[in-house]
Amino acid sequence: MGIFRKGETLMQRGQDGIRYRIRIKTVDGQELFWHKRGQLHLVEEDVARAFVENFKPDVFEVLPDGSFTPPVEGKTSRVAQLTMEPAPLE
């Protein structure tokens, strides 16, 4: 038994209380949010900014569930754009 709710960590929210989600737009028109290990992935502002600014679309593509992976013919979509946006407070 831990002191946190399921899935919560010590640094669940940044110092300002705002976490960010990454919106993925694919070249075929899909819009998804980044998911990792089956859940919406929320990050602090500096991580989100670095991820969006340094993303390499020739290295990673996106699966229909919003997770990133190396390109797989017929299973992944090319990423056209990444943007960061504040996640709604729960």
Task: Explain this structure.
The protein has one helix at 45-54, and strands spanning 20-26, 31-33, 35-36, 39-40, 42-43, 61-62, 68-69, 79-86. With 90 residues, the chain is mainly β. The strands form 3 sheets. Strands 1, 2, 5 and 8 form a 4-stranded antiparallel β-sheet that branches. It starts with 19 loop residues before the first strand and ends with a strand. The mean pLDDT is 87.
Structural class: mainly beta
- Please state roughly what percent of the residues sit in beta strands, choosing from under 5%, 5-15%, 15-25%, 25-35%, 35-45% or over 45%: 25-35%
- Counting structural domains, the number is 1
Q: N-to-C SSE series?
A: EEEEEHEEE
For the largest beta-sheet, the strand count, sense and barrel status come to: 4 strands, antiparallel
- Basic shape: globular
Quaternary class:
single chain
> What is the CA–CA distance across the termini?
23 Å
Number-wise, the strands total 8
Number of helices: 1
| Helicity range | 10-25%
Low-confidence stretches: none
Gyration radius, to the nearest Å?
Answer: 14 Å
Average pLDDT for all residues = 87
